[in-house]
Amino acid sequence: MPNDAPPPIHSAKDALDALAGILGGALPGSVAAADDPVAALLSDPDVASAVTGRLRGSGSGAGNDSLCRWLYDAFRSNVPELQLAVLRFVPTLAGVYLCRAVSRKPLAGFEAVLLALYAHAAAQRGAGEAETVSLPNLANPSPYHDAKVPPKAKPAELDVAVLTPPLEPHGTVRATRRARIVGAVLQLYHGKLAHMPLSSKMDFCEFCVAWAGTHSKLDGADKQRLPPAPDAGGGAEKWRRVPLPWELFQPALQIVAHCLLGPTGSDELKAQAARAAECLYWRATETVDARAVLATRSLVRLSQMVEEPIPEPSFSGAIENMAELEAMRANILNSKN
């Protein structure tokens, strides 16, 4: 970081003052006059638009980027509200970083923020601990049925499946570590997804489409949906297709699934998530990754089930049957009399 960097952040007031200086003006009144300015910072659309615009802009992510320095210091301040505000910009941060890292541009500012988030995720999980799940062993008899064969004296052990490998400490981002580091950051974002505003989730779904490099049938036309960032030559920077190994693909799909099937009332978010799920599915079929194909295909089918209206049951046939049964009952009673 440069020597003329802003002073470190120790409180919420320091963070707000530093961000106002970086953005070149006072923060909106909806943030400055709020009872809890940091909480208002998380969902304020004007601040979000200004920060995401800076992150997507030409030259962002360099080692002397003051906004990256603010994100780094704000997250390391250990103020929970500030950490949520930083996580809100993870989709844009990771999206722009992965698209530019393919061209091997120097992105020390982005990498410093990602490493700070990765270190926090590793500390939360514990050193050298993987996320696992225990699966039932079919060799053991079912507790709900009588066994035809007498059970063995010692039951078979449960099978343990590794969901995510241990997070080893890393001080630098190399090409071989990039997917694991960004994937761990996305898992951290996924853990706080319920607190994220709608625009943050929309940004992530849009970048998923760019990462996949494929087009959904929902597009209708071959067009760029993400707002392009101007590059140094005055043209438009195109967000490009990136490598998607499973350690990056898995958390991305989890976030898309939450946006699609989670408790949200936004039809626009569900449409974007369905588009992202289909693009990830076509990308998985290209790489012939069985895990990715099965997961994305299931999610696409679930999205189609959500979109299809559930037909209301018709009771006309039942009413006719009841009338016929009543007539038969009356005839039987009359014949007995």
UniProtKB/TrEMBL annotation:
Any Pfam family the entry gives: Hyccin
GO annotations of cellular component type: cytosol; plasma membrane
Keyword Cytoplasm: yes
A biological process term (GO) from this entry: phosphatidylinositol phosphate biosynthetic process
Lineage top rank: taxon: Eukaryota
InterPro entries: Hyccin
Annotated localization: Cell membrane; Cytoplasm, Cytosol
Keywords: Cell membrane, Cytoplasm, Membrane
Family: Belongs to the Hyccin family.
PANTHER family documented for this protein: HYCCIN (PTHR31220:SF10), HYCCIN RELATED (PTHR31220)
This protein's name: Hyccin
Organism whose genome encodes this protein: Miscanthus lutarioriparius
